Amino acid sequence: MAIELKTVNEADRELWDNLVHASPQGTIFHTWKWMDIVRKYSKSTFYPIIGYNGTVPIGVYPLFAQKIFGMLCVFSPPPSMGIPYLGPAIADYDKYKQSKRESISKGFQQSIDKFIFSTLKAKYSLLLLGPAVDPRQYIWTGYKLEPYFDFFIDLRPGTESIWKDFDKDARDHIKKVASQNLLEPRSIEITDGSRNDLSGLFEALVRRYQEQHRKVTVPKEYLLDIYDAFYPDNIRMFTVKYKGQNINGILAITFRSTISFWIGAPKPEIKEISSNEINHWEAIKWACEHNFSLYEEFGAGTERLSRSKSKYNPQLRTRFKAEKYSSSIYSWGAKGYDLFLRNGVGSLFTVKK
Questions:
Q1: Peptide bond preceding 232 in cis form (omega within 30 of 0)
Q2: CA-CA distance, 143 to 97, in Å (whole number)?
Q3: How many CB atoms lie within 10 A of CB 278?
Q4: 3-class SS at 137?
Q5: Bigger pLDDT: 215 or 54?
Q6: pLDDT tier at 273, thresholds 50, 70, 90
Q7: Any idea of the CA torsion for 177, 182, 184, 188, to the nearest 10 degrees?
Q8: Among the residues of 143-291, which ranges form H helices?
Q9: Per-residue pLDDT, 52
């Protein structure tokens, strides 16, 4: 199937968002409002592309281009914006028969591939695909795939069932916090955090990453703009306070029936209180009370973090990174900036050089 591409602008914002919301692959990261903020901070040229089958718009594909070490690279999502995945969002994809799904997906990706390497003349493309994207189209168009992993918890059984599935260690830590509150009433509280609380959480993340010889690459102003644009409808901050002082927090994203733990829960300075466990538990309880069906945690492929994330008995989910060079001659540069790409795309931090 031949798919024609059109690079759109603000005038097509409503059409763009309608396609995103009609797609099972669409996320809050795809929405025009989020992309417009990313465009402001990403140091990339934004190409908001809509695909057409004849006169019918079939989906969106946000691309970002920038030069790295003299090579034009195309990303979806762009580096250092903390977006875990992006790629295509095809409208009504789940309503099609499998043969039509494959025809549209293949045609869309072939046209995108031609745009990246023939029109833009990029030397390299890196795409972080969402879990609902069929990765086979990328194999068939010459991309190399690498698995990425996330955790998710099915919230539909309810809090009682979810609680029973927690590791004993996690339950004991949460009970300990509850016991402490009995001894010192309201000494530990989980509140709906404010914009100022987000600033404090950002500084805590900076300190924590410095201890690990890492550097936060996402601009603080970007996070605050996201908060301003999406709170309270799609952003909620769970802040742990001890005797009125902030000691930890989680910035969560809500979209459709999913709540995603996006940023936060650094190793706390006050170690006597299991602030991470109680924070996650309160976020899960809130999500169940508000009829969300999925609790999503990114980054399950990081070994040092997997143990702390797995104590809540989540299920493992696989998605893929797809990368391609215009010619094998350009792959020599991979070693020089692979660390940047690996940690900068879809991540909050990178390793200090």
A1: yes
A2: 25
A3: 24
A4: helix
A5: 54
A6: confident
A7: 40
A8: 159-165, 168-183, 195-211, 220-230, 275-289
A9: 98
Centre a 10 Å sphere on the Cβ of residue 267 and count the other Cβ atoms it contains: 14
Where helices occur in 115-167 by DSSP H, the ranges are: 136-140, 159-165
What pTM did the predictor assign? 0.92
Q: Which CATH number fits domain 156-292: 3.40.630.30, 3.10.180.10, 3.40.50.300, 3.40.50.2000?
A: 3.40.630.30
Q: pLDDT for 210-232, tens place per residue?
A: 887 888 889 999 999 999 999 99
pLDDT over 90, % of the chain: 73
The tokens for 122 are 């990029």
Each residue of 112-157: pLDDT tens digit? 999 999 999 999 999 999 999 999 999 999 999 999 999 999 999 9
Pairing of strands 71-76, 124-128: parallel
pLDDT of residue 329: 54
Q: Is the separation of the CB atoms in 255 and 27 below 8 Å?
A: yes
Counting every residue, how long is the chain? Answer: 353
What are the sequence ranges of the domains in the chain?
4-147+320-351, 156-292
For residues 217 and 344, the answer to whether their CB atoms sit within 8 Å is yes
Structural element, H or E, at residue 260: strand 258-264
Rg (CA), the chain: 21
Q: Write out the two tokens for 308.
A: 């702390």
Token digits of residue 332: 């020599």
Gap between the Cα atoms of 95 and 166, Å rounded: 36
Output the CA torsion sign for 22, 26, 30, 31.
positive
Core vs surface per residue 86-111: b (16+ CB within 10 A) or e? bbbbbbebeeeeeeeebebbbbbbbb
What CATH class has 4-147+320-351?
Answer: alpha beta
Q: Is 215 left (phi over 0), alpha (psi -120 to 50) or beta?
A: beta
Q: What letter represents residue 200's amino acid?
A: G
What is the token pair recorded at 262? 């996006």
Q: Which pLDDT value is given to residue 225?
A: 98
| 121, amino acid identity | K
